[in-house]
From TrEMBL:
Cellular component terms (Gene Ontology): cytosol
Family classification: Belongs to the esterase D family.
Catalytic activity: S-formylglutathione + H2O = formate + glutathione + H(+)
Protein name per its UniProtKB record: S-formylglutathione hydrolase
NCBIfam families: fghA_ester_D (TIGR02821)
Species per Swiss-Prot/TrEMBL record: Aerosticca soli
Length: 281
């Protein structure tokens, strides 16, 4: 039985921006997530877009900064935005912003002390959708996933690893190959250990190259003035991998945009349209 508790409710573009808390069995702690319910959800089941946020974020960053609710209300899309890691005094942490709480990297950790709670992959792929589909009027199986930076990595990975589970995927400034950049090397060493062969299961570039079945089209937006572009993101690696295996990719580069939510807010409508098209019907 769900212990779903509503923490916030705000009228927003004819619908509701809510925040909920529940006990997560995958993570072994309380978790918050935001849900935007468009006005159409009062009348009929709607499709769901899951949003995965980046380093240092909670469920609040996307719902307060991306400005996604206006278009979602027009399209009749439910938006679900979970926190980015397990939380709490009993949960392992690190003082750095890029490890521990706020930096779950959407993996199932295998290494102590992280393995006790850090199972964000299972949470995002299995537990949260099951909860959403039981608690809200959603169209079964009609799911999309999107994200930003660490969350862009998460969105690409969960979609590429689960053919048929998502109808659409998109990302803003994603970490496309965490196995090969400092943020990912640090997190994966801690969460997954030193055997790099285990890292490929969470690396979008590796997954694109390995895929044999479904080739879900990818939409990626990248700012050219992104302070993390050359060190952590490398969209060209995804472009090369997609070209090599014929994986459909729309990569859009935007002069002058940096890494932050001003960039996300500038192009979020395009992403919502992309998902709504795939989720229609
Ligand atoms: N200097 C920041 C670094 C954290 C940061 O930039 N986080 C980004 C995502 S980066 C990759 O996942 C973010 O989304 N921040 C939240 C926001 O509202 O902008 C720090 O020290 O925290």
């Amino acid at each position: 039985m769900s212990d779903l508790q509503r923490l916030e409710r705000h009228a927003c573009f004819g619908g509701w921006q809510d925040v909920y808390r529940h006990h997560s069995a995958s993570l072994g702690c309380a978790m918050n997530f935001g849900v935007y319910l468009p006005p159409q959800a009062r009348q009929r089941p709607c499709s769901v877009l899951y949003w995965l946020s980046g380093l240092g974020c909670t469920e609040q960053n996307f719902i307060t900064k991306a400005g996604a609710q206006r278009r979602a209300s027009e399209l009749g899309l439910i938006l679900v935005a979970p926190d980015t890691s397990p939380r709490g005094a009993a949960v392992a942490d690190d003082p750095a912003y890029d490890l521990g709480q706020g930096a779950g990297f959407y993996v199932n950790a295998t290494q102590a002390p992280w393995s006790a709670h850090y199972r964000m992959y299972d949470y995002v792929v299995e537990e949260l959708p099951a909860l959403i589909e039981a608690a809200f009027a959603v169209r079964p199986g009609l799911r999309g996933v999107a994200g930003h930076s660490m969350g862009g990595h998460g969105a690409l990975v969960v979609a590429l690893r689960n053919p048929g589970r998502y109808r659409s995927v998109s990302a803003f400034a994603p970490i496309v190959a965490p196995s090969r950049v400092p943020w990912g090397e640090k997190a994966f060493s801690a969460y997954l250990g030193s055997d790099r062969t285990t890292w490929a299961a969470y690396d979008a570039v590796a997954l694109v190259q390995q895929a044999t079945g479904e080739r879900l089209p990818l939409l990626v937006d990248q700012g050219e003035a992104d302070e993390f572009l050359g060190r952590e993101l490398h969209p060209e690696w995804l472009q090369q991998a997609c070209a090599l295996v014929g994986h459909p990719l729309t990569l859009r580069r935007h002069a002058e945009y940096d890494h932050g939510y001003y960039f996300v807010a500038s192009f979020i409508d395009d992403h919502l349209d992309w998902h709504a098209r795939a989720l229609a019907g």
